[in-house]
């Protein structure tokens, strides 16, 4: 197998980014894939969002983990291997791993080797008996899962917190969960966080915070396209807009063109009408029943869930049937 030198790998990533941008902006409803919101600056801004009073999601999930950790560890049981796709700094898994009975190991996956290795060392310092198998790669590809068959455990449990599943349309979410099932065996588990459907006022405040951090997070995508792809977006001529769509049960994030304008990206030219938008993200909200149906369809049996007292957020435990 040929190994790409770092420069070439980077070139390839830029090519894919460029293609995705051109394809997205050529559609009738212009769109950009939300994964590109998370470059270094975007990830910093997202961390700031998580600290906002208006953004209840991160805080609420953390409260549920703090409150119900022992029950979750009990549901997972002894000698389990915890697998975390898109683990990042592994901060959410660490207390859970510490609460598990004789865990067989931890297998975090992330595209960033630096963040993953730093987290691995931190966890090994705290839990020296725990085998940590760090897998660098995109969890939607086979490479990231290559280590899995070689790790023995009584059961394997996928950990997918953060309501990341909400970024996927229901069809894609179902396919992602079915993909998880295909990596597991009957009786293996899934511990997954989902934001719940709720009062639109609460939802819209969370994605239109009074400090405008979400607006900066959204517009950072235009800066990124300018820097990495040499485009000439004027971010001042776009406005952040987020709204709840009750029929689609999701918060949509858009960038609205404030005027008629042209934008150029490497010889390609895109026309914007005044008021035309680029759709940059979806954040799907589930009812408890709706998410259980999604789990069921994908091949999981819902076992139980934990939620906050306002039912703003839920963490579900399910088993492969
Ligand atoms: C990272 C997908 C959980 O949808 O709430 C936050 C991303 N976008 N504010 C979410 C996000 C705008 C976030 N998730």
Q: Main traits of this protein?
A:
321 residues; alpha/beta; seven-stranded mixed β-sheet; four-stranded mixed β-sheet; 9 helices; 39% helix; 25% strand; binds N,N,N-trimethyl-histidine
What does this structure look like?
39% of the residues lie in helices and 25% in strands. With 321 residues, the protein is an alpha/beta fold. The strands form 3 sheets. Strands 4-3-2-5-6-13-12 form a 7-stranded mixed sheet, sandwiched between helices. The longest helix has 21 residues, at 56-76. The model has no long low-confidence stretch (mean pLDDT 96). It binds N,N,N-trimethyl-histidine. Residues 49, 57, 162-164, 166-167, 207, 214, 281, 283 line the site of N,N,N-trimethyl-histidine.
Q: What is the compact description of this entry?
A:
By secondary structure, the chain is of the alpha/beta class.
Blueprint of the fold:
Elements: H1 6-25, E1 30-31, H2 40-51, H3 56-76, E2 80-85, H4 93-99, E3 105-110, H5 113-126, E4 135-136, E5 155-160, H6 170-183, E6 189-195, H7 200-207, H8 213-229, E7 238-245, E8 250-257, E9 261-265, E10 268-272, E11 277-284, H9 288-298, E12 300-307, E13 313-320
Parallel strand pairs: 1-11, 2-3, 2-5, 3-4, 5-6
Antiparallel strand pairs: 6-13, 7-8, 8-11, 9-10, 12-13
Helix pairs in contact: 2-8, 3-4, 6-9
The site of N,N,N-trimethyl-histidine has 11 residues, from strand 11.
């Amino acid at each position: 197998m040929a190994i790409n030198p770092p420069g070439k790998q980077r070139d390839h990533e830029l090519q894919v980014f460029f293609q995705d941008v051109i394809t997205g902006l050529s559609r009738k409803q212009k769109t950009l894939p939300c994964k590109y919101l998370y470059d270094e600056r975007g990830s910093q801004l997202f961390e700031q969002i998580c600290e906002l009073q208006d953004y209840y999601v991160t805080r609420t999930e953390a409260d549920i983990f703090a409150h119900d950790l022992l029950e979750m560890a009990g549901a997972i049981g002894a000698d389990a291997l915890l697998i975390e796709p898109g683990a990042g700094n592994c901060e959410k898994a660490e207390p859970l791993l510490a609460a598990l009975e004789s865990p067989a190991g931890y297998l975090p996956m992330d595209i960033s080797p630096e963040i993953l290795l730093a987290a691995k060392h931190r966890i090994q310092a705290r839990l020296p008996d725990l085998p940590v198998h760090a897998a660098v790669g995109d969890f939607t590809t086979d490479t990231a899962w290559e280590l899995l068959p070689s790790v023995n455990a009584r059961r394997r449990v996928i950990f997918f917190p953060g309501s990341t599943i909400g970024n996927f349309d229901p069809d894609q979410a179902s396919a992602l969960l079915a993909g998880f099932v295909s990596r597991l065996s009957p009786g293996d588990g899934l511990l997954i966080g989902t934001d719940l459907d709720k009062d639109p006022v609460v939802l819209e405040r969370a994605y239109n915070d009074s400090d405008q951090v979400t607006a900066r997070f959204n517009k950072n995508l235009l800066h990124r396209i300018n820097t990495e792809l040499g485009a000439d977006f004027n971010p001042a001529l776009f406005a952040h807009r987020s709204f709840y769509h009750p029929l689609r049960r999701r918060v949509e994030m858009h960038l609205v063109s404030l005027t008629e304008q042209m934008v150029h990206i490497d010889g390609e030219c895109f026309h914007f009408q005044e008021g035309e938008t680029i759709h940059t993200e979806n954040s799907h909200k589930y009812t408890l029943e709706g998410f259980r149906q999604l789990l069921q369809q994908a091949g999981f049996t819902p076992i139980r869930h934990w939620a906050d007292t306002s039912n703003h957020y839920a963490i579900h435990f399910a088993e492969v049937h």
